[in-house]
Amino acid sequence: MENVFLIHNEITYTYKKLLFDLNNKVYETPYLYVKDNHPYEVFLAIVHSLLFDYPIEVLDGDFSEKEISELGINVNALTLTTKMKERLHFQKLDDVMKQIKKIEKWQLTLYTSGTTGRPKKMSHTFHTLTRNVKKHTKFENDVWAFAYNPTHMAGLQVFFQAFLNQNTLIYMFGESMKKIPALIEEYQITHISSTATFYRNVLPYVQGNTFSMVKRVTFGGEKFDLLLEGKLKAVFPNAKMINIYASTEAGSLFTAQRDTFEIKPEHRQWVKITAQQELCIHHSLLGHSESLSLDSKWFHTGDLVELVDETHFKFQSRQSDMINVGGYKVNPLEVENILMQVPGVIDILVKSKKNSVTGELLVADVIKNQEIDEKELKKEIKQYASIHLQEWKVPRIIRFVDELPSTRTGKKVRK
Prior knowledge:
Blueprint: E1 4-8, E2 11-14, H1 15-23, E3 27-28, E4 31-33, H2 39-51, E5 56-59, H3 65-70, E6 82-83, H4 93-102, E7 108-111, E8 121-124, H5 126-130, E9 143-146, H6 153-163, E10 168-171, H7 180-186, E11 191-194, H8 196-206, E12 216-220, H9 226-235, E13 240-247, E14 251-257, E15 260-262, E16 271-273, E17 278-282, E18 298-309, E19 312-318, E20 323-325, E21 328-330, H10 332-339, E22 345-355, E23 359-368, H11 374-388, E24 397-400
Parallel strand pairs: 1-10, 4-5, 5-7, 9-10, 9-11, 11-12, 12-13, 23-24
Antiparallel strand pairs: 1-2, 3-6, 7-8, 13-14, 14-15, 15-19, 16-17, 17-18, 18-19, 20-21, 22-23
Helix pairs in contact: 8-9
C-alpha cells in the first residue's frame, strides 16, 4: 500500500503523488495564495519553495482583494510566476529529506491574524518554524489529525512534524463534527491537534466512545481548559494531553502538560515577564519583521501570564481581551471557565457590551445541550455565577446561540 501523505474531503494524496508533483512543478511564485486554503496545494507549494530555496509569502486563501491591497500587495502580483532555472529530480522521498537538510537561507513569510490591528508581516527560517519538531524512527507510524488553517503557524507546526517523519495527515478543519468519530476510527488516528473550541464542538459526538489508539491530544491557540481535558481523557484514555504556546512572531516556544508552561534552559535569558504580568520575548527568538521595533530588543506579546516560579508560567488572558466593568478588570476566560461547569453548557463566549452606567457589561453567548430547557438553564447559569463569581464578573445578559463566531485560526471572536 502506498504511503499516504494527506487525506482531505475523502480524497487521498500519497507521498508518491507529492513526489511526482514536486518533480513536475516548473514555475516558482513569490506568493502562495490558494483559494479556500486547500491543504494539499498549500503544502505542495511550501515544500517546493523549501527544496529549491526561494522565498515565499503565504497569504490566507480567505483574504479578500481589499485585505490583500491593505497589506501593500498588488493583487495582480499573486499570479506572477518565474520559470525555474535549476531543476532537480527526486527519485524517492529520502532524496527530498536529504535536500531539505542542505537548505540554510530559505525564508517563509506569514501574516499575523490582525486581531489587534493591521496584520504584521513575519518572516521565518526553516529553523524557527521547526525548532520543536521531533524526528525519530519511533514516530514513523504516527497519524496526525489537525483542525487548523494550513496557512497559519499552528497548521504549519503540525505539517512539519508529520511531513519530516513521513506521517499521514488527516485534515479536519471545516469537517462536519458528526464525521470526526468515523475518521478517527477509519484512519486509526494517533495524534490530534486543534484549539479548545474545536474539541468542545466535537465532544458531543465523541462522548461515549473510547479511542484507545490516540496517543496524543494537543491544544493550541487558546487558553487550556482543565474541565475539557477531563472529558477528553475519558474519550482518549491513552492520550497524553499537551498544551502548546505558539505565535506567528515566534513559532512554537513553550509546551506544557495541563496549564503550566516551562521555559526551557536555552530560552530562559530570552524570556521575561513584566511587572504588569505581560510575557515578553527577545527578538533573537522571533522571525524577522520590519514592523517590529528593535529599540528595546523585547517583543511585547500582549499575553498576560501568572509566574509560577522562575521557569514556569500560566497563561491568563490576552491584554486586549480584558473587560472594564465599572472600574474592575474582568478576564472573560475566567468567567467562561467557571460557567462551563454548569451542566448543559457545551460552550460559552463572554464579551462586552457598552453600558451608560458601568462603561461595559458582560454578555454570555451560550451553546447548550439541545435537551435542556432554555429558561431553566439560564436560571442555573445565573445562580452558579452569583455563587462562584464576584458581582462584577457575573454576565448581565445570557443569550443562547447555535454557534460561536471564530477567527480564521479557529479562535473565539470577542469583539
